Amino acid sequence: MEQLKQQIEALSKSFFEEVVAIRRHFHQHPELSCEEFQTAEFIGRKLDEYGIPYKKGVAGTGVVGLIEGKNASSRCIALRADMDALPLNEANEVDYKSVNQGKMHACGHDVHMSCLLGAAKILNNLKDQFEGTVKLLFQPSEESYPGGAIRMIGEGVLENPKPQFVIAQHVINTLQSGDVGMKAGAYMASTDEIFITVRGKGGHAATPSQVIDPILAASHIIVALQQIVSRNADPVMPTVVSFGRFVGEGRTNIIPDVVQLEGTVRTYNESWRKEVHQQITRIAAGIAEAMGATSEVRIAHGYPFLFNNPGLTEKLQSLASEYLGQEHVKELEQRMTAEDFAYFAQKVPSCLYRLGIGNETQGINSNLHSATFDVDEQSIETGMGLMAWITVGMLREVTNDK
């Protein structure tokens, strides 16, 4: 394996400039969820160039490629990269700044796709040196419900051939370029969207006795809902109930008829998740009624919590240590952010690990989903090489398990 490792390292260096250019193309031409048509076309052209067969139009704009090594039907590992951008105006002044107004790759999906293409090119060059099949999953719509993962699964991407494992790589700004991070077990939270309509009776702000104030009722509802976390949640069960939108179309002297609230609930346990939904509805209804108003609660069921298979994660940590050095493989903490990769993890042993893209010296430290987000592009060499190394290592593990 040492010789193969050296080959992967050499190919990563050789392909580095090309893959950086690919990343910059993606970054400059972002497309939102379910709109990744030009992105998919570009991916297809690259796979054609590499001689890798693929299928387009999966889950709308997704692309699925196959790299067949020796004894291709014996085993399969799937590698996933998400494709969509976010609705943000980019604030960076760089040569590869987004040319699509109001759209930006602020979550690193441009890096994910680039690293997967780079890994694919490496693996295709080495396919006579490993057994089995590598399935490339370029997934649309990670950023918007219901997400592209569940649609791809519904269209059969986990069949013909069926992967033994699914692996994804996601950037993170809190790790420095050259480092990666992993977390076995429950890693990312479930996420649901809360929509509450509070109805009262509007009127003049100077005559509050003649109105039913939905602003006041909604305010009490938000405060009370915080007690779900502080007084109902198990202290060892991470739970978040947060509201980011409070809209009451009144004026300084006008109390409105209706208030709209929008928020999110996140946790790590499916039974508790259902109970939280029930409590939100019950608390909102009770407070609204007590104040003479009414409430309507709608909770949009989002992604489940992400569970990294412990055995697979342990093997990936070992492989990453072999490739990068143990000092560059970090232990991650749980996060309350969410990922639709969780759907793959419900079906097949899976792991999503983190690729460090920060560089304090260069001032590259902006958080994901921010208008100033950028990456240390040297991380791309790490990302594509490690993904290729992990893939051949896990194919070998599958062989040994048999």
Describe the structure.
- With 402 residues, the chain is of the alpha/beta class.
- The chain has two domains: 2-189 and 304-401, Zn peptidases (Aminopeptidase), CATH 3.40.630.10; 192-300, Alpha-Beta Plaits, CATH 3.30.70.
- Helices cover 37% and strands 25% of the residues.
- It contains nine helices and 16 strands.
- The chain has helices spanning 2-28, 37-50, 109-125, 148-154, 214-232, 270-290, 310-324, 342-347, 378-401, and strands at residues 54-58, 62-68, 76-82, 133-139, 165-176, 180-182, 185-188, 192-199, 203-204, 239-248, 254-255, 258-267, 294-300, 306-308, 329-331, 350-358.
- The strands form four sheets. An eight-stranded mixed sheet has the order 1-2-4-3-5-16-6-15, sandwiched between helices. Strands 10-12-8-13 form a four-stranded antiparallel sheet, covered by helices on one side.
- Strand 3, helix 3 and strand 4 (133-139) form a beta-alpha-beta unit.
- Helix 1 packs across helix 9 and helix 7 (310-324) packs across helix 9 (378-401).
- The model has no long low-confidence stretch (mean pLDDT 96).
Fold topology:
Blueprint: H1 2-28, H2 37-50, E1 54-58, E2 62-68, E3 76-82, H3 109-125, E4 133-139, H4 148-154, E5 165-176, E6 180-182, E7 185-188, E8 192-199, E9 203-204, H5 214-232, E10 239-248, E11 254-255, E12 258-267, H6 270-290, E13 294-300, E14 306-308, H7 310-324, E15 329-331, H8 342-347, E16 350-358, H9 378-401
Parallel strand pairs: 3-4, 3-5, 5-16, 6-15
Antiparallel strand pairs: 1-2, 2-4, 6-16, 7-14, 8-12, 8-13, 9-11, 10-12
Helix pairs in contact: 1-3, 1-9, 2-3, 3-9, 5-6, 7-9
